[in-house]
Design goal:
The protein is an alpha+beta fold and about 450 residues long. The protein contains twelve helices and 21 strands. Strands 1, 2, 8, 9, 10, 11, 19 and 20 form an eight-stranded mixed sheet that branches. The protein has a seven-stranded mixed sheet with strand order 6-5-14-15-16-13-17.
């Protein structure tokens, strides 16, 4: 499929023209999982894509690295899951809520149908490397790393591109559609004058760090309830544990002011089984990374010529490992909508309504679920609440209803697949699956 560029009246020639004037069909701002997955889908559908990414490498620290089965299936459809796994990953059997040595809640993903019967902890750089490598093999792709978006181009009320500032030069990227995929503090969203819709729905922030733990990984995502603040722990490649210490919202500056010794003391008290690892790994405050936890839903997700996806459109707590999953689902749902709009030659916001109509209920459901999870897992309540948790645990572990709940968390509601029938370049069929997932 060759989609004409109605914005500038020219077809793709493989050259950039003047150094500061570039032309494309879709300009994606942000080279994270959502942006690169969408780019790959569009490229395989014959659409020209330019990605603006402010970073120049993927070696920086990423905290979100757990793939739900639904996200794994999307990546399998794109032919990149195997490459990401082979670069290094850890399979996790499910989620557990642990109070001292007692398991209060066990969500077992092995009850799901293979091959998507587990969580996958994969360093995000492995995922991004795999996606970018596939994009680079396809015609019509341009990757401008080290470029920050500085302005949006507009004509008669429609977004027509973006101004990118890179090393020693400024580029005007003319596009028929701009996709904002640049995260929870999206510059694209701000430049469009769209409010972030931030809501202080959670009473905690998360302090992240990793420790080397050869031979001591658990195969689970565990939330440890302690006398102080709960702590999240899961395996991370290679032979490490990623630890997220929850703190009362905005309390970190006061704690940090007391020094690394006090911080380390509280951490080892919360996780005495890993005290030796923490003592070795946490030598200064710079070894710790604070995540400001909040919920957010942008006031609008679309404008004429503009769409927001992933964290740019909706921001979530790390609880439940839904961030990457939702971003990949956004990309898969938006892909056929964009292809249809480009083919029709109309990119007004009304053309993007099917994307919003499909994704908004799913996002709302996850936000509601995470609020309930936060209250149930982090809240105090004594013996009565512990008894309630035990009842919920038995329901999830032993009943058909519990299996349906696990499936919904794992795959979304409804599950999302990639429209590979729209692919004109590269693999045109889903990856071979030994079984179908349970509905």
């Amino acid at each position: 499929m060759s989609i004409p560029n109605n914005t500038n009246g020219t077809n793709w020639t493989g050259t950039t023209g003047p150094a500061d004037e570039l032309h494309t069909d879709v300009c994606v701002v942000g080279g994270g999982p959502a942006g690169l997955a969408l780019s790959l889908m569009l490229l395989r559908s014959g659409v020209r894509v330019t990605v603006l990414e402010k970073s120049t490498r993927f070696e920086r620290a990423f905290r979100g690295e757990i793939l739900q089965p639904g996200g794994q299936r999307i990546l399998d459809d794109l032919g990149v899951l195997t490459a990401a796994r082979d670069a290094g990953a850890c399979e996790l059997d499910g989620f557990q809520l642990v109070d001292r040595s007692r398991v209060l809640l066990d969500i077992d993903y092995r009850r799901l149908a293979a091959p998507y019967d587990h969580l996958l902890a994969v360093p995000q750089r492995h995922l991004l490397d795999a996606l970018l490598a596939q994009c680079r093999q396809l015609p019509g792709f341009r990757h401008l790393d080290g470029h920050r978006v500085g302005a949006l181009l507009e004509e008669d009320g429609r977004i027509t591109g973006a101004v990118a500032h890179g090393p020693g030069r400024r580029r005007r990227v003319h596009a028929r559609v701009v996709v904002g995929a640049d995260g929870r503090f999206s510059k694209t969203r701000a430049l469009a004058g769209i409010g972030a819709g931030r809501v202080e729905a959670f009473g905690h922030d998360v302090l992240w760090f990793k420790v080397d733990a050869p031979g001591r990984q658990t195969g689970y995502v565990r939330i440890h309830r302690t006398a102080g603040s709960p702590v999240l722990v899961h395996d991370s490649h290679p032979g490490r544990l990623q630890i997220g210490w929850t703190l009362p919202h905005k309390s970190w500056p006061e704690l940090a002011a007391r020094g690394i010794g006090e911080v380390r003391r509280e951490l080892t008290a919360a996780l005495p089984q890993y005290a030796d690892l923490i003592e070795t790994a946490v030598g200064s405050l710079s070894d710790l990374s604070l995540l400001d936890v909040f919920a957010g839903k942008a006031d609008e997700w679309t404008r004429d010529g503009l769409v927001l996806i992933g964290d740019s459109a909706h921001t979530h707590s790390p609880l439940g490992a839904q961030g990457i999953n939702l971003a990949l689902q956004d990309a898969a749902v938006l892909h056929p909508v964009l292809v249809g709009a480009l083919r029709a030659g109309t990119v007004g916001r009304e053309r993007f309504a099917p994307f919003v109509d499909a994704r908004l209920p799913a996002v709302n459901a996850v936000m509601k679920m995470q609020e309930m999870q936060a209250k149930g897992m982090f809240g105090n309540g004594g013996p009565v609440l512990d008894l309630l948790r035990s009842g919920i645990a038995r329901l999830i572990r032993h009943s058909p209803l519990g299996e349906r709940i696990t499936h919904r968390v794992a795959f979304g509601s409804p599950p999302v697949d990639v429209r590979t029938d729209l692919f004109a370049v590269g693999p045109a069929a889903p990856a071979d699956r030994t079984q179908t997932t349970k509905g």
